[in-house]
Design brief:
about 80 residues; mainly alpha; 4 helices
Length: about 80
């Protein structure tokens, strides 16, 4: 996690840091799926259901944040 976040920050700035942290769980997930397939307990259909749900939630979150930025632009926020 530390390596991915620092590498992302070095190359892409703050958004690279965010993406590095968000994607840091990908290698353990791939290893876990590989272990399941080795033990013959991987059910691909259920993994696809999980991925579809995740994509749906991500799309809704993206659309919601875009809508909020249209309604309430960042220039109005005063701290």
């Amino acid at each position: 996690m530390l390596t991915a976040s620092l590498t992302g920050y070095y190359f892409f700035g703050f958004m690279g840091f965010v993406y590095g942290v968000a994607l840091s769980g990908l290698p353990p997930l791939i290893y876990y799926l590989w272990l399941q397939s080795q033990k013959r307990i991987l059910i691909v259909k259920y993994e696809m259901y999980k991925a579809a749900f995740l994509c749906g939630v991500a799309l809704i979150a993206y659309l919601g944040s875009s809508l909020l930025l249209i309604i309430w632009p960042i220039t109005r926020i005063r701290i």
